[in-house]
C-alpha cells in the first residue's frame, strides 16, 4: 500500500469501525457518514463494533458484503452493575486489582492526570473479563475508590470552579458508571489492522486496549466535540451539581484519552481543531476531512408552498424547543406556513421529546408544525421544502446542511461548528437560541422566493464543487491506507504502551496554522 496514494497491494485493509449510539442501529448524521464510508470503500474489509445504550432493535442500515457487525455491546444491558460490596475475601489465586476503580476515577476525572495512566487498568479488564464484576463487589476496592474520589474532589486549579458536594448516593452512582466503563474495556473486539473510532468518548476505551495489547493504530474521526457538547448539556441541565460535575469531568477524561491514543485525528471541520489542540493533540496529528454527499443532480424547483423542513433527532443539542418558538414567530407573519420536522427520538431522550410536544401544545402550533418521525430519505423530504431550518447548539460539519444545499434549497441555521464553511453564501446564519434572528431569516426567504432560489442555487454549486462524496472517500482512503501500510511494514508487535503515534500521512495541502493539514478543496 502506498502512503501517498492510498492504493492497496496484497490483502484488503481490515478496519475495525467503533461506533457509539449510531451506526448501524440509529439514523443520523454520523450513521450516514459511516454508511458512506463503508459502501464507498468496497476495497476495505469493515468490521463494525457497536456500542448502544440498553437494548437495540435490528440494524436499520443494511451492511454491504465488505462489512460485518462483528461486535455489539449493550451498555447498561445484560450484566447487572454492582449493588453492593463483597465482604468475604477472594481466593488467593484469583486475579485481583483492588485499585481498579481508584485508577479509573483518578485517570478519567482527575483534572491534571496523565490520560494514558488509566490504560493498564483497562488492559487488566480485557485480560480478566470474568473478574471485573467480582472486583467491583470487593470491599477493599470500594475503600480505595472512596479515597481516590476524595482526592479528586479536593483538587484545586485556577481553571476549575468549586466542586459540588458528593453524598454517598452520588458516590455509588459514579461507582456503577465506572463498572460500565470497565465492562466496555473488557469486551473483546474483532481483529483488524486499524481502529477507526467515531467519537472521542466511550468507544475510545476498547481502542485504547487494542493499541496497548497489540499495537493496533487508531484513527479518530471527530464530528461534534464530545466534551464541548457535555459542557453545553450541563449548562442547560437541571440535574444536581454533583451529577453535572461527573458528566463533564468524565467527558473530558474520555476525550483526553481518545486524543492521547489517536495516531491521527480527523475532524470534519477546522472549528474542532482548537479544542483538540487545547486537550493535547499536536497539530501534526490533525487532518481535517470534511463530510461529503453524493454528487448533486438537477435541481427540482421549490414547491413554493411556504414549507419549512428540518431533519434531526429530538435531542437537546438540536434545540428543537428553539425551533418550535421560531415556528410560532414565523406564523405570526406568514399564517399559511407549514413546518415539517423529520427525526427520531433517541433512547434516553424521551423526556425531552415529551417536553417538546408540551411546548408545541402551549404555543398552539397545531398542524402548522408537524413531527413526522424518522426518515430514511432526507434529501427526498428536503425537496418538499422552500426553506430548510437547523437550530442546533452544537454541530460538527452537518450532513443535513450539505444534503439541503445539494437539493438547491436555502438553509437558515445557527452559526455552530463548521456550518459557515459548508454554506457560505448559500443561506442565512444566526446565533444559537436567537429566535428572532432565525425567524426573520425564514420569513425573508418565504416571502422572497427569488432570493431563496438564488441562495439555493449557490449552495447546489458549492456542494458539487467542494463537498462531493468522492473527496471525503479519497481523504479516508489515503489516511487509512497510510496507517495500514506503516503497520504492515512494522510487522507483528508484542504488547506496547498505548502512546501517541506519528504515522506517515498522505501528501495533503497545508491549511490553517500550527502545522494542521486538510484535504484540499
The overall strand count is 15
| Helix content, binned percent | 40-55%
Tally of discrete structural domains: 3
Return the CATH architecture of the largest domain: 3-Layer(aba) Sandwich
As residue ranges, the low-confidence spans are: 1-8, 498-504, 507-514
Strand order in the largest sheet: 3-2-1-4-5-6
At the fourth level of CATH, the homologous superfamily of the largest domain is Glycogen Phosphorylase B
| Rg calc | 24 Å
Pfam family, one: DUF3492
Protein name: GT4 family glycosyltransferase PelF
InterPro entries: DUF3492, PelF-like
Organism: Kineococcus glutinatus
Structure description:
- This protein is an alpha/beta fold.
- It has three domains: 192 residues, Glycogen Phosphorylase B (Rossmann fold, 3-Layer(aba) Sandwich); 79 residues, no CATH class; 160 residues, 3-Layer(aba) Sandwich (Rossmann fold).
- 42% of the residues lie in helices and 14% in strands.
- A six-stranded parallel β-sheet has the order 3-2-1-4-5-6. It has a six-stranded parallel β-sheet with strand order 10-9-8-11-12-13, sandwiched between helices.
- A hairpin with a 6-residue loop joins strand 14 and strand 15.
- The radius of gyration is 24 Å and the shape is globular.
- The N terminus is likely disordered.
- InterPro entries: DUF3492 (IPR022622), PelF-like (IPR047691).
- Keywords: Glycosyltransferase, Transferase.
- It comes from Kineococcus glutinatus.
- This is GT4 family glycosyltransferase PelF.
